[in-house]
Design brief:
This protein is mainly alpha-helical and about 575 residues long. It has 26 helices and eight strands. A hairpin with an 8-residue loop joins strand 3 and strand 4. It starts with a helix and ends in a 12-residue tail after the last helix.
């Protein structure tokens, strides 16, 4: 029981001494990346820098104890922080204290939703957030971050946060650019790019920020010229209640639902990719509970909502980390820095933090995925592009919701009008196949073989009936038998069954025999409760298309129809 709820305990029972050095080095490597990026992401969301450190301690420990992934590292995430800012800053109305309370309440509410979801086996919801929407969301977030952080590089305090107005404001106020800040930001950005290409396993953000900080200090630029992070309080996070009350939680509840969907989906995408690479399976429900408890810890102990961090997870994997002991080491190292090295952190230049965020946002931007989607499905490419445009124009959550609704409508349309196939004999292929597979495919004279490739439900039953009657009416030579393949009819409701009965009656009146081939096992309940066999006829139901066609030909040979020139074939 304990091992199921606390996978780290199970891993420690099987722990090998050779793993310890790897986990320690991986943990320190993760901390080297985590500390500067956590401060940068806190800055992105509009929080004090120490808030990012707090979000990298207890939440990381909570996930390490409860998560089923051996590589995933959770913590402040660029997309999640951008979403928090977009959702809560308009509600806070410029009150920083209230904003922190809203953020804590959002993390706790989202965490509780995930814990409840994990306990009720709702982890499957991650499968409903399609890749096109996720790509579009992350691309929109990336573009929004890059434009928003340009203000730090230019030392221009932007009045707007939305993408379009911010971009226009940057263009309008370009003459206010502070050249020393721009030089620090650009130099840091170039250094980050060079390091990432020459030494991809190095703690890029740490090296970039430390170098920028030393450069600013040695050149004597300081706060009088280049803005610095400022005072970072030393110490560990304290337990605190948000104190919003029922009405306050009500105001952010739907935001919490949206945050759960987006952050948990991106977390699982990262976790699954590394689990597949390392040859083990994940429990989505366990992951949902673990990320939920991590968010609750963040909300109660001075942090903000967190998610799976792909860059830190990649560092963990590249460093050879074997278990979640890596996250324990990283969290403890972060705590040590918060206790004893807070003063040096305050000397980091803000333009360098902006450069780190722009560099991270560039890593989120996935143009290659758009090219791939365009080549596979124009609709899914359009859906992804629309998600990006929605995120940039109408807001993060509304843009994602709009894309999800469009995806659902598309799925409903596909169910309403599913694919279909007219089957026949194709040269070189066994059995009965789609006639479109080969220009030399042939039908069986007098027999229409039809496959309906989707569920037969109340909203497409009329379409189903009309299509069958149309095929019979246009058959040449006239059909004496209609073979309906049910192998692709994955579901059928009472309305669909009634449509099948009606088709049977109409075809019978026209002298056409309806034969059912390859019915699914679920149809047995209809055979027992709805008298399907009695109405359709036991002799008209077959385990294969081949046996149905054989029966149709035999009956047609014994009772040839009156149609001129009909000759049954074998």
């Amino acid at each position: 029981m304990l091992a199921r709820w606390f996978p780290l305990l199970r891993d420690l029972r099987q722990y090998q001494k050779a793993w310890l050095s790897r986990d320690l080095m991986a943990g320190l490597s993760v901390a080297a990346v985590q500390i500067p990026t956590a401060m940068a992401y806190a800055n992105l969301a509009g929080f004090p820098p120490e808030t990012g450190l707090y979000a990298s301690m207890l939440p990381v420990l909570a996930y390490a104890l409860l998560g089923s992934s051996r590589q995933l590292v959770v913590g402040p995430d660029a997309a999640t922080c951008a979403m928090i800012a977009a959702l809560l800053i308009p509600i806070a109305n410029g009150d920083p204290i209230y904003y922190l309370k809203l953020s804590a309440a959002l993390a706790i509410t989202a965490g509780l939703l995930m814990v409840i979801g994990g306990m009720t086996r709702m982890g499957f919801i991650v499968n409903f957030f399609g890749r096109p929407i996720l790509v579009g969301f992350l691309n929109g977030i990336a573009l929004s971050i890059m434009v928003g952080q340009m203000g730090k590089l230019l030392d221009i305090g932007l009045e707007n946060r939305d993408f379009g107005p911010s971009l226009l404001e940057l263009v309008r106020r370009a003459g206010e650019t502070h050249l020393p800040s721009l030089a620090v930001g650009v130099a840091t950005l170039l250094l980050l790019i060079v390091i990432s290409r020459r030494a991809p396993r190095a703690p890029v953000a740490l090296v970039g920020l430390v170098t920028a900080g030393l450069g600013v200090y040695l050149l004597g630029l300081g706060n009088n010229s280049v803005m610095l992070v400022g005072t970072v309080p030393s110490g560990l996070p304290q337990f605190a209640l948000p104190g919003l009350g029922y009405s306050g939680v009500q105001s952010i509840f739907m935001n919490a639902v949206g945050l759960v969907i987006v952050s948990f989906t991106s977390t699982m995408l990262t976790a699954r990719s590394f689990a597949t690479r390392n040859g083990y399976a994940l429990d989505a429900d366990q992951e949902m509970r673990a990320v939920g408890f991590a968010n609750i810890a963040a909300g109660f102990f001075g942090g903000f909502a967190i998610a799976g961090a792909d860059s830190r997870t990649a560092v963990n994997d590249a460093s050879g980390g074997k278990t979640q002991l890596v996250s324990v080491v990283a969290a403890l190292a972060t705590a040590v820095v918060a206790l004893f090295l807070a003063k040096p952190l305050g000397q980091l230049p803000l333009p360098a933090l902006g450069a780190v965020l722009i560099f991270s946002a560039w890593g989120l931007l996935d143009i290659a995925a758009w090219k791939e989607l365009f080549g596979i499905s124009r609709f899914e490419f359009g859906l992804s592009l629309l998600t990006t445009v929605g995120v940039l124009t109408i807001g993060v959550l509304p843009g994602v919701v709009l894309a999800i609704l469009l995806a659902i409508l598309y799925v409903l349309k596909r169910i309403y009008q599913p694919r279909e196939a007219i089957l026949g004999l194709a040269p070189g292929l066994d059995g009965y196949n789609d006639l479109e597979l080969s220009p030399d495919s042939k039908t069986i004279p007098g027999i229409v073989i039809y496959r309906f490739e989707g569920p037969l439900l109340f909203f497409n039953a009329d379409l189903f009936k009309a299509r069958i009657l149309e095929l019979v009416a246009n058959a040449s030579p006239p059909a004496h038998s209609f073979v309906l393949s049910l192998e692709a009819v994955t579901q059928m409701d009472v309305t669909g069954l009634q449509a099948l009965f009606q088709v049977h009656d109409v075809l019978k009146a026209q002298g056409v025999r309806l034969l059912l081939a390859r019915p699914k096992r679920y149809m047995r309940k209809y055979a027992q409760t709805a008298r399907a066999v009695e109405i359709l006829g036991k002799d008209n139901i077959f385990p294969s298309i081949r046996s149905a066609v054989k029966s149709a030909l035999a009956k047609a040979a014994a009772e040839p129809p009156l149609g001129p020139g009909f000759q049954p074939t074998t």
